[in-house]
Design brief:
- There is one protein chain.
- By secondary structure, this protein is mainly alpha-helical.
- It has a single domain, classed as Phosphate transport system protein phou homolog 2, domain 2 (Methane Monooxygenase Hydroxylase, Chain G, domain 1, Up-down Bundle).
- Helix 5 runs antiparallel to helix 6.
- The chain is globular.
- The model has no long low-confidence stretch (mean pLDDT 94).
Amino acid sequence: MALFAEKPAQRSFFAMLAEAGANAEQATEKLDRLMRNWPEDASLREEIKVLEEEGDRLTHDILYLLHASAQTPLEREDIHTLATALDDVVDYSEEAADVLGLYKIEAPMEQALELTGVLRDAGAQVSQSLSKLESMHEVSPHLVEVDRLEDEGDRISRQALVSLFSGGVDPMVVIRWKDVFERLEQAIDACERVGHVLEGIVVKQG
């Protein structure tokens, strides 16, 4: 049984947040595929761009409904943060995909492959947690995993910077990859923001 009253507007919020989560999961999965098959599957950049545009639409719709609703099933600030953080996941994923092409990167660094894998897994955990938000059934295990993945992402990012600045790497290559890693880190951080908001919701509803 759902913990929240069955009102149309409330069902819309939960459904739209779950849809935004699924969109973010798709974007992170496609970015991971793009990185693993770069540059052969460069066309995936366009598919990620389509998902970014869909993310913008979903964010707009959620925020419009938020402003139009007298009552909401969750605190307004929580809904707003969830919507914008999910949008950030997709935006930063799209930016990472974009700079791969703009900078004409020839082949991915090993740490980039690891980091997109972490982002893909975090996106999946976020999506699964949002799909269970209305019932609040077994949300917490997904949030624990998001936290673990964010820590793993930080570790990989530090290793990547050490590799870039260890000497002997062309300065332009350093600049380009640093830009890519920053986008990937920001996308993972946005997943963590979603997780933190959901943790707060679990506590408040517990």
